[in-house]
Amino acid sequence: MYQLKTEASFDGAHFLTDYNGKCENLHGHRWRVVVYIRQASLGTDGTERDMVLDFGEFKRIVREEVARFDHMFLVEEGSLAPDTVACLEREGFTLRMLPFRTTAENLARNFAEVLLGRGLPVSRVDCYETPLNCATYLVDE
Ligand SMILES: Nc1nc2c(c(=O)[nH]1)N=C([C@H](O)[C@H](O)COP(=O)(O)OP(=O)(O)OP(=O)(O)O)CN2
Ligand SMILES: [Zn+2]
Q1: In this structure, which residue's CA is closest to atom 4 in ligand 1?
Q2: Which portions of this protein are annotated as coiled-coil regions (predicted)?
């Protein structure tokens, strides 16, 4: 089995609903997303001969998906009143509405699902919320 990994980062703001502590307040992170892909065999011809996937292509896809979150306010759907959302958008803020609580665990799973949907053989995604705190999502074999 072969494994490749690449990573990308994004800056954003969020708050955690139902959190009893400082994280219930609006704050920011530079999230670091590390993506692993696995494959039993290597390419046989062209650019990808003896590769799982060209690193250039791998990082391009990962960066593209991660960039969809960059410099945005990540908001769990239903966690802000519609009026609040409208006011923020009127002020020019970009809100990224998400159907899940914005934990590192859920973000890791979300990136795994999105990248699997783009055809990458993803096996694992690590999502670092801080340099020392990381949640990992492992894709079922
Ligand atoms: N399992 C998880 N726990 C927490 C998550 C999470 O996504 N998964 N997220 C948070 C908050 O987003 C919070 O911002 C993180 O706070 P904290 O761990 O306290 O990190 P700090 O860097 O601010 O810690 P200090 O040591 O106080 O500087 C909370 N938990
Ligand atoms: Zn946080």
Answers
A1: 103
A2: none
Look at strands 95-98 and 72-76 and give their pairing.
Answer: parallel
Write the class of the CATH domain 2-138.
alpha beta
Question: How do residues 38-54 score in pLDDT, each as one tens digit?
Answer: 999 999 999 999 999 99
Residue with tokens 């802000």: 80
Regions in the chain scoring below 50 on pLDDT: none
125 vs 111: CA distance, rounded Å: 7
CB 108 within 8 Å of CB 80: no
What tokens were used for 104?
Answer: 């590192």
CA 95 to centroid of ligand 1, rounded, Å: 21
- Closest atom of ligand 1 to 130 CA is 22
Nearest CA to ligand 1 atom 28: 130
Q: What is the DSSP letter of 141?
A: -
